[in-house]
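Exercise 3.2. Students should predict the tertiary structure of the chain below and write it as structure tokens, then compare their answer with the key that follows.

Predict this chain's 3D structure.
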Amino acid sequence: MTFPKPLNTIFGKILVGLVAVYVLYVAVIGLFSTTCPAGFTPPKAEDIQDDKTRAMVMAEATVHSLDNELHSVFGWIPNDLFFVPKILDNIVNYQKGVIYATRPASDIIAKTVSRYGKNDTLDQRLVDATSRSFVYSDEVWGFWFIYDTEGKYKQGVQNWRSWAASVDSGVKNAGVYNVKSDDVYLILKYCNQMLEYALGYLNKENIKHYESDNYVYFAKGVSSVVEDILRGLVAVDSSVVQRGGQENVDAALKRLSFVRDFNPWYVVAGGNDTGDAMLPNHVAAIARHIDVASNRINDIMQSMEK
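Answer key:
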């Protein structure tokens, strides 16, 4: 009596086909997803003449990195099924870093640019974006795409753009744009705190060799949001350069652009705990750029305190 070979049965062929499709799917995601998307490029300062344009610049600076990921070839990957996040951990950790930094950015910028005083009510669209959309877990797939992560984040992005478009429009519930020197300082403080967090994350003890890329790409995601917001802030408020110094601004943005473009073929952490082996230490390298950017932003803040 002979038994059919498993792979020659209909079930076996279907199984092999599914495995092949899955492998191809993961390979395509790996080829076409990127952890170095283009950063936010605001209009030139001389082209920004009214509050509506300033509002639109700050709104785009806040959501640019997140929107890039939502509208990338494969969209938001941390909530994909079939263990894709476990395999393609670089893009997953980058996107997690993006949303991690976007959440407090939405909160801080909404409170600093969209009302006349601290006792004024926040625009409901920005409240919803901050407290309902962006706080949503980055891993929820959803039920028939209802209340899924991507849908929630896209709604938050749309709320920010809706607020900006309504500023000075004269319509009911039109948005408000109002930025004072204290507000500028608080936004810079946010930038500095996010970079310090990323730096502390990279400086954790006992980062395992095969986990070092997770730390690097999460820090890249955080830094990309900070870079976008700093570029937007410099464009809409000349006091950052006037009081903080062009050299400090340029140096901070230069280092953040280095972090954005940092993408080695294979991430290594120096070969041992002290990082003095023959292998390069990519964790220390990206941490150095973030540290310099953080120090420059701190210098700007100190200058603005005087």
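Discussion points: Residues 33-305 form one domain. The chain has eleven helices and no strands.
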